[in-house]
Specification:
transcription, Arc Repressor Mutant, subunit A, about 100 residues, LeuO homolog, two-stranded antiparallel sheet, DNA-binding transcription factor activity, plasmid
C-alpha cells in the first residue's frame, strides 16, 4: 500500500468510522452505533476517500461493500484500532491496580 500525502489529516475518528461502516454494512447502522448522524458518516467517508484518491466503497442495494483498496485499508486500520484499544486497556488496568 502506497503512503498518502496527507497522512497527518487522518485521525482516529476517521479510522473508527471506516471500520464501523465495514462492520455494520451501511452508514445508517454505523451512525447509530457511533451515536452520530448518517451525514457525519458520509462526510467522514468522503474525507477519507479524498485523502486516498480512490473509491473505498461500492454502493449496492444491500449497503456499502469495501472496494479492493477498502479491504486492504481495513486490514491496516483494524490492526491500528486493536493496538490502540489494547494499549488504552493496559494503561487503564495499570492505573486501577495502582489505586489505593
Amino acid at each position: 500500500m502506497r503512503p498518502i500525502k496527507n497522512a497527518k489529516k487522518i485521525d482516529y475518528n476517521l479510522i473508527k468510522v471506516f471500520d464501523t461502516v465495514i462492520t455494520e454494512g451501511n452508514a445508517t447502522r454505523a451512525a447509530r452505533k457511533l451515536d452520530v448522524t448518517p451525514a457525519a458518516i458520509s462526510q467522514a467517508l468522503l474525507r477519507l476517500q479524498n485523502l486516498y484518491g480512490e473509491e473505498l466503497f461500492i454502493r449496492t442495494r444491500k449497503g456499502l461493500v469495501p472496494s479492493s483498496k477498502g479491504k486492504s485499508l481495513h486490514q491496516v486500520f483494524r490492526q491500528a484500532i486493536e493496538s490502540i484499544e489494547s494499549t488504552l486497556c493496559d494503561k487503564t488496568d495499570a492505573q486501577e491496580s495502582n489505586e489505593p
